[in-house]
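Side project, low priority. Logging it here so it doesn't get lost.
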Amino acid sequence: MRSILKLARHNTEKEIDFELKYLRSLSVKKRFEMMFKKTKEIVKLLERHGHRKPFEIIKRT
């Protein structure tokens, strides 16, 4: 279960430490799964807002 960070005041250092602690608790496989999932979300979001995929270089034979 993922915990929630609650701070009375904004503290960037504590926020970063919290995120790093969470990421260290994950396995390498889980981190990669999250990264690939987020990449797909970003690509879909870009395409939805008018950014097309980059052109492909076609090698002539």
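Brief comment: The chain has a mean pLDDT of 87.
Revisit when time allows.
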